[in-house]
């Protein structure tokens, strides 16, 4: 009776522990990265064979290199203090702005978006760096002016002006998908900072007008939205990607066809290792695999919510919420597109899709969140009091010898 009654209390105590946030981040990130590696290997092998002289592993090797770099950034980023991230925020933002300008001057296009530059033989997408830089910078300036954010002047200067500038540079490269993710990041940062709701109505109206102008400036965007809104498929080529994405999900069933057994990756589904990797996950791992992905992102969302609600540092609250909006919001957009709940926007699935810049910066962003989690009230003491795995193993061994 007593032992049975103690179990719920133990689980509640564990949930309330400040270490729970770190465990959620580690668990969610590990699931997404491992599943992503498996599916990138499967889905990119066909493209690699066609484009890299028969080497089926060339794209996968690039992804592994990016993963190693990203994990190093995560490890270092999680060990430093939030004060460090506050200090590097301006350098991260203005450095990324310089790279975005370089993209417009010397960058190259892919999929209709001018968003990449080449550095030392590798391609880099500066907008991924700008996401983290913008989240950190908004955390600094909005926490600094938190008592004056009822005044439009302090809402716009410097946070609003800088955010508009970064969005303008991204849109100049015609990368509307990334701009949408950044707009969500900025909105969440301002909301958590305490900006009055009336300003969101004003900015929402301006954003709506801007989106209409951008949509009318590109025939491809209008065609995608009209095809999605109509729900019909008169032009087979126009809805080829969404149709084959749906077929991939449907053919996976409950348990999937098995690792590496996708049929759509054989040239039928464009961007199968990137924007539409969620469809390949559904095809190879079934409904169980897709639910596992959703559960992993839910873990990250819960962890971010804990950081925002438990931290007493306004910089941590604002920048942590912005990073969470970036990762979870982008995942929501990507999955909604694959499920045909939204028109095609062209954003990858964070921590899962192929693409070095996205994977590296997403892992660094998780490292920032882990840094915040390790500095939650009581977290340092909880980690210090927790016996290490080595010490526990030695204790078990010593007990066994004594008994022997």
From TrEMBL:
<protein>
    <recommendedName>
        <fullName>Probable peptidoglycan glycosyltransferase FtsW</fullName>
        <ecNumber>2.4.99.28</ecNumber>
    </recommendedName>
</protein>
<comment type="function">
    <text>Peptidoglycan polymerase that is essential for cell division.</text>
</comment>
<keyword id="KW-0808">Transferase</keyword>
<feature type="transmembrane region" description="Helical">
    <location>
        <begin position="152"/>
        <end position="171"/>
    </location>
</feature>
<keyword id="KW-0472">Membrane</keyword>
<dbReference type="InterPro" id="IPR001182">
    <property type="entry name" value="FtsW/RodA"/>
</dbReference>
<keyword id="KW-1133">Transmembrane helix</keyword>
<feature type="transmembrane region" description="Helical">
    <location>
        <begin position="20"/>
        <end position="44"/>
    </location>
</feature>
<comment type="similarity">
    <text>Belongs to the SEDS family. FtsW subfamily.</text>
</comment>
<keyword id="KW-0133">Cell shape</keyword>
<dbReference type="Pfam" id="PF01098">
    <property type="entry name" value="FTSW_RODA_SPOVE"/>
</dbReference>
<feature type="transmembrane region" description="Helical">
    <location>
        <begin position="277"/>
        <end position="303"/>
    </location>
</feature>
<feature type="transmembrane region" description="Helical">
    <location>
        <begin position="315"/>
        <end position="339"/>
    </location>
</feature>
<keyword id="KW-0573">Peptidoglycan synthesis</keyword>
<feature type="transmembrane region" description="Helical">
    <location>
        <begin position="176"/>
        <end position="193"/>
    </location>
</feature>
<feature type="transmembrane region" description="Helical">
    <location>
        <begin position="351"/>
        <end position="373"/>
    </location>
</feature>
<feature type="transmembrane region" description="Helical">
    <location>
        <begin position="56"/>
        <end position="76"/>
    </location>
</feature>
<keyword id="KW-0328">Glycosyltransferase</keyword>
<keyword id="KW-0812">Transmembrane</keyword>
<feature type="transmembrane region" description="Helical">
    <location>
        <begin position="199"/>
        <end position="217"/>
    </location>
</feature>
<feature type="transmembrane region" description="Helical">
    <location>
        <begin position="88"/>
        <end position="108"/>
    </location>
</feature>
């Amino acid at each position: 009776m007593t032992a049975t009654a103690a179990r719920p209390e133990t689980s509640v105590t564990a949930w309330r522990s400040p270490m729970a946030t770190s465990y959620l981040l580690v668990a969610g990130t590990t699931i997404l990265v491992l599943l992503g590696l498996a599916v990138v290997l499967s889905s990119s092998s066909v493209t690699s064979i066609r484009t890299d002289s028969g080497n089926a592993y060339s794209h996968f090797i690039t992804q592994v290199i990016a993963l190693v770099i990203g994990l190093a950034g995560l490890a270092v980023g999680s060990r430093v203090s939030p004060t460090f991230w506050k200090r590097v925020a301006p350098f991260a933002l203005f450095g990324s702005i310089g790279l975005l300008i370089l993209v417009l001057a010397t960058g190259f296009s892919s999929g209709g978006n001018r968003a990449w530059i080449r550095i030392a033989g590798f391609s880099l997408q500066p907008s991924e760096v700008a996401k983290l830089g913008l989240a950190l910078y908004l955390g600094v300036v909005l926490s600094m002016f938190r008592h004056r954010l009822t005044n439009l002047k302090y809402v716009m200067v410097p946070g609003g002006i800088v955010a508009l500038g970064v969005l303008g540079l991204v849109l100049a490269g015609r990368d509307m998908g990334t701009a949408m993710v950044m707009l969500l990041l900025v909105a969440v940062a301002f909301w958590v900072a305490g900006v009055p709701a009336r300003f969101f109505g004003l900015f929402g109206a301006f954003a709506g007008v801007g989106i209409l102008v951008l949509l009318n400036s590109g025939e491809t965007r209008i065609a995608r939205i009209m095809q999605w809104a109509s729900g019909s498929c008169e032009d087979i080529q126009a809805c080829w990607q969404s149709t084959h994405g749906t077929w991939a999900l449907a053919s996976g069933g409950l348990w999937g066809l098995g690792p590496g057994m996708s049929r759509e990756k054989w040239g039928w589904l464009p961007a199968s290792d990137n924007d539409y990797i969620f469809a390949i996950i559904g095809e190879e791992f079934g409904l169980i695999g897709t639910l596992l992905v959703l559960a992993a992102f839910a873990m990250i969302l819960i962890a971010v919510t804990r950081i925002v609600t438990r931290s007493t540092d306004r910089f941590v609250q604002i920048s942590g919420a912005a990073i969470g909006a970036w990762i979870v919001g982008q995942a929501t957009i990507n999955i909604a597109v694959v499920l045909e709940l939204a028109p095609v926007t062209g954003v990858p699935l964070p921590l899962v899709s192929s693409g070095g810049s996205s994977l590296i910066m997403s892992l660094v962003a998780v490292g920032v969140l882990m840094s915040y989690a390790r500095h939650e009230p009581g977290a340092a003491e909880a980690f210090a009091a927790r016996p290490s795995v080595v010490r526990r193993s030695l204790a078990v061994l010593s007990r066994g010898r004594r008994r022997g």
